[in-house]
Amino acid sequence: MDGRDEGVFAWITVNYLLNLIGSGRRSPTAAVMDLGGGSTQIVFEPSLPKMTHMHPGEHVYQLRNFSNTTYTLYQKSYLGYGLKQARQSTNSLATFAHLMKHAETAHSGLTPSSWEAFSAENTHIPSPCYAEGMKKAAKVSTGMSQAREVTMRGTSSGFRACQRLVELMMDKDAECQQAPCSFAGVYQPPLSQVFKHADIVALSYFYDRLTPLGLGPTFTVKELEQLAERLERPRDQGGRALSRPTSSCQMGVV
């Protein structure tokens, strides 16, 4: 199924089950964010000021005559920004940055040009996106050669350092030719302004990853941020979070 249709069908399903569409009355609808492995879909019905419209383009989806009502939706499928693809891209970025600065310490006698010799056994890459003390084999790629497996090693840099790395991976500073943009230079009406009074429903990997961590069926973005900060604290052998003194490293200053 095309990503354009996949997101819209998810939006129809969610809003129909919530009795927000198809009931014969006009109600504020919920936005849908669907996090897959290779891509992320976002679909919502912008509540724009009178006499204003979305910029034209493929992101505009006209859902016509659904229960005698027409809905003008914003939809976008972000290829490469699903959970698995985004994780590999973030790990690859951490690997590239570290090898450019610390080629002599990242692995056992290898150089960045000997990419084919990299392995989880001989190449250890520090990353703020893993809890301190954690080690995990991960595939990384330079984009010009076959992916290799290295060992990602958690650091004490903390949540904010990981956030900066992820924002760089998401190309948050890309040129925005048609404002406003979300990330990667893609036009998107800002949710905080045009979608103030309705829910956002997060599907698929959002539910799969967050529910076991204790977030209930409803939560705020702030609560999600606080959870991420807690998860990056170092832990003892029993899995209990350890306290650590405030330092420039903890605050993400490197």
From TrEMBL:
Active-site residue numbers: E6 (proton acceptor)
UniProt biased composition (Polar residues): 244-254
Membrane topology field: Single-pass type II membrane protein
Pfam family, one: GDA1_CD39
Gene3D superfamilies: Exopolyphosphatase. Domain 2 (3.30.420.150)
Location of region: Disordered: 231-254
Signal peptide location: none
Keyword terms of this UniProt record: ATP-binding, Hydrolase, Nucleotide-binding
UniProt-recorded Gene Ontology molecular function terms: ATP binding; GDP phosphatase activity; ribonucleoside triphosphate phosphatase activity; UDP phosphatase activity
InterPro entries, alphabetized: GDA1_CD39_NTPase
Single Gene Ontology BP annotation: nucleoside diphosphate catabolic process
Residues that coordinate or bind ATP: G37, G38, S39, T40, Q41
Main localization (coarse): Golgi
Compartments in which it is found: Golgi apparatus membrane
Keyword flag Nucleotide-binding: yes
Cellular component terms per the entry's GO annotation: Golgi membrane
EC number of the protein: 3.6.1.42
Family recorded in the similarity comment: Belongs to the GDA1/CD39 NTPase family.
Chain's role: After transfer of sugars to endogenous macromolecular acceptors, the enzyme converts nucleoside diphosphates to nucleoside monophosphates which in turn exit the Golgi lumen in a coupled antiporter reaction, allowing entry of additional nucleotide sugar from the cytosol.
Protein name: guanosine-diphosphatase
Organism (species): Malassezia caprae
Gene: GDA1
